[in-house]
Amino acid sequence: MNRQRSFIGFIVAGAIALLVIAIAGFYWFFAKSPANLIGSTSQPGAAIFVSKLSPVMVSLLANPDRLQALEREEELSKLKTSLFAKSAIDYKQDIQPWLGEEITLAITTLDIDRDLENGQQPGYLLALATKQPEKSREFVELLFSKRALAGANLAVEQYKGVKLIYDNSQLEQNLLAGAVVGEGFVLFANDPKVLRDAINNVQAPDLNLTSSPEYQKATKELPKGGLAVAFLNLPIVAKWQGLELPEQLYNSQIISLALNPKGLLAETTFLTSSEIVPPSPPLSKPVGALQYIPASAGLAISGSNLSNLGNSDLAKLWRQATATIYGSEEDVVSRLAKPLADIQKRWGINFPDDIFSWVQGEYAIALLPHKEQTTPHWIFVVEKSQRVEQGVARLDAIASSNGLSINPLTIDKQKISAWTELTTATKKTNVKEGASFSIETKVRGLHTTLGNYEIFTSDLETMDEILTTKDNSIIDNPNFRDSIAAIPLPNQGYIYLDWTKSQNLLERQVPILKLVEVLGKPFFNNLRSLTVSSYGTDTRSLKGGIFFKLNNS
Predict the structure, then answer these.
(1) How far is CA 248 from the centre of its chain?
(2) 410 CB-near residues (< 8 Å, 6+ apart)
(3) Do 303 and 283 meet the contact criterion of CB atoms below 8 Å apart?
(4) Which of 87, 143, 195, 455 has its CA 20 to 30 A from that of 487?
(5) Three-state DSSP class for 513?
(6) How far apart are CA 31 and CA 486, in angstroms?
């Protein structure tokens, strides 16, 4: 029997509850009182039950009812009702009286019985903090008595002083095991072996996650007051996914979610045994190149020194992450950055060699979505230098080799170089006169110098917007300013995504995103933007954050 499928609805509900409650709760908070909703502890207490070889552990560090106090439309109440509908359990009556300030879900092992012949059978553990152990014991008895009445064959076992109750039928497709351990936690698992291992981990501390040096170091990076935390053992996660990574630099990752007066801040730290060298010196303020990015941009990326990006540890993280999720870096570029991939293909260029190699100063890259077009317009701004001048000359040469002409233009008294292509268009007339022909000039790209920056754009319309709306740049956009204010300084720059402007474009490029939006509807309906940055000074870790700006904040 494949126990991976037997991970019963109760455990699945726990996983869904952690994600949905976190996402929904972070939207439903009142902007004036985020300080009143913080985690009761900075670290999950249930880590003592989890093996240090566990690939993933996720914890909500606040009672769901504290989030419910901030909700609108009673969505959390509906969620909790639906979670327990099939088990005949009433959340308010049976669970609420004893549920404490932590809910932890962990994948404890990749294969419960270590038998490769019957496939990989992960072990799942759900730990619920209890504030009234006797009432929680009554709940466990109630739950299993109802399962017995429904036809389940139950077994009761005393294991190292702990009473285990579990399904004892080999034919059972929805196995469940439960126990109340000490005065602190109620445990549920998809196999009694998982519970026995959890108890062993407590009684032999060198086996559990809290004894792991990686975990100890990771938890030191956790901010105070986080509402949720996740820890990933990256090599084991890759093994779980059946992947053999060509490059394994980072060993573990910890993620923390915390409220901010303007939205939600997700901070993450990647740990490595190697020394990390940042791709460029940290920035104490946003780069000046952003002054040439219009406020209408849907995506803006800014920082300094692209020449070292390909060899940086940030790039190694990108390769490791994309290999884990997509299988290859090329695949993720073609999916998520299709406009840029199309430019490379059309021009026959390689970004790292033909562009990034000569960008050692400030830069900003932006995409401007247009409702009438499926392909967004683009902007590339780079700080002037001798290498930049050589790079521009190289791009002009590449344009010429691709059959494009380099023509001077003037927009609002500004001199511009345009890469143009002549094409012919035919129009059928009557039979006697035959077909008529016309010559059209198509602009494939432009560049000009403004101040200390060279600016490239995809089209005349975008260049005109930059030249004629100088007081309407993204750096003056209140939403952008609020978003970057939540990111610590100094940092390595920003990736800013305006969700309201880019949603349609992203849905076309990543179809599965629509499914994610349905699952997290309250969150995505109110997501205004997200901002990503890398910061931190530890040479053995890479720290960064994602700030989600919400409409009600």
Answers:
(1) 20
(2) 416
(3) yes
(4) 455
(5) helix
(6) 14
Tell me the C-alpha to C-alpha distance, in Å, between residue 38 and each of 69, 132, 228: 13, 22, 9
Task: Please give the Cα distance from 399 to 81 (Å, whole number).
Answer: 62
- Nearest-Å Rg of the Cα atoms of the chain is 28
**pLDDT tens, position by position, 506-518:** 766 665 566 555 5
Q: Report DSSP letters for 305-355, one per residue.
A: --TTGGGSHHHHHHHHHHHHHTSSHHHHHHHH-HHHHHHHHHHT--HHHHT
3 state SS of 195: helix
CA 6 → CA 119, 191, 540, distances in Å? 13, 9, 40
Q: Cα–Cα distance between 139 and 210 in angstroms, integer?
A: 29
Name the nearest CA neighbour of 541 among 117, 234, 309.
234
CB 188 within 8 A of CB 126: yes
pLDDT given for residue 127 in this prediction: 93
Which residues on adjacent β-strands are paired with residue 506?
Answer: none
Structure tokens at 198: 């959890």
The alpha carbon of 515 is separated from its chain's Cα centroid by a whole number of angstroms, namely 15
pLDDT for res 17? 44
Return d(Cα 93, Cα 112) in angstroms, integer.
34
Asked if residues 376 and 339 have their Cβ atoms less than 8 Å apart, the reply is yes
- Alpha carbon 552 to its chain's center: 21
Report pLDDT digits (tens) over 454-501. Answer: 999 988 999 999 988 777 899 989 999 999 999 989 998 898 999 888
Torsion of CA 59, 63, 64, 69, to 10 degrees: -140
Do residues 485 and 522 lie in contact, with contact meaning Cβ atoms separated by under 8 Å? no
Look up residue 179 and give its amino acid.
A
Q: Are 304 and 281 in contact (CB under 8 A)?
A: yes
Note the pTM of the prediction, 2 decimals: 0.80
- How far is 21 from 342, CA to CA, in rounded Å? 39
The C-alpha atoms of residue 56 and residue 233 are separated, in whole angstroms, by 6
Measured CA to CA, the distance from residue 23 to residue 106 in angstroms comes to 19
pLDDT tens-digit profile of 237-267? 878 777 666 666 778 888 888 887 778 888 8
Torsion sign across C-alpha atoms 188, 193, 194, 195: positive
Sign of CA dihedral 462, 511, 28, 107: negative
Amino acid at 130: T
Q: What are the tens digits of pLDDT across the range 352-409?
A: 788 888 888 999 999 888 766 667 888 999 999 999 999 999 888 888 888 888 889 8
Looking up tokens 């803006």, which residue turns up?
300
Position 167 scores a pLDDT of 85
